[in-house]
Specification:
Elements lengths: L13 H8 L2 H4 L6 E8 L2 E10 L2 E15 L3 E8 L5 E7 L9
Antiparallel strand pairs: 1-2, 2-3, 3-4, 4-5
Length: about 100
């Protein structure tokens, strides 16, 4: 399985970032190929993605299960394909960066 790390530093308070990312209704539509989602309960949702490559349209459904929730520092979830063979584990970590005073 492929693995990777993506790091982004933003000049915003950790709590403000947590308030945004912990509510998927605020950011769901920004996910590439997003079509819709259904919240099953506070730890599970079903997502539908739709893409078009060279005229071929593909719709994929995936179940998202939150496996860990530690406010305001990290969220872990598993993504499992319902319509396609897909399985991923994702971890989102937030931490305060120390800023040097000039």
């Amino acid at each position: 399985m492929a693995t990777g790390i993506h790091t982004v530093e933003i000049p915003v308070d950790v709590q403000a970032v947590w308030d945004y990312v912990s509510d998927l209704e605020k950011w769901a539509t920004t996910v590439p190929a997003y079509k819709e989602h259904e919240i099953i309960n506070d730890k599970q949702s079903i997502w539908t993605f739709e893409g078009n490559v060279k005229g071929i349209k593909k719709t994929v459904q995936a179940q998202v299960d939150i496996t860990e929730w530690n406010e305001p520092s990290n969220i872990k979830f598993e993504l499992k394909g319902l319509s396609d063979n897909l399985q991923e584990a994702v971890t989102l970590r937030l931490k305060k960066l120390m800023v040097k005073q000039q």
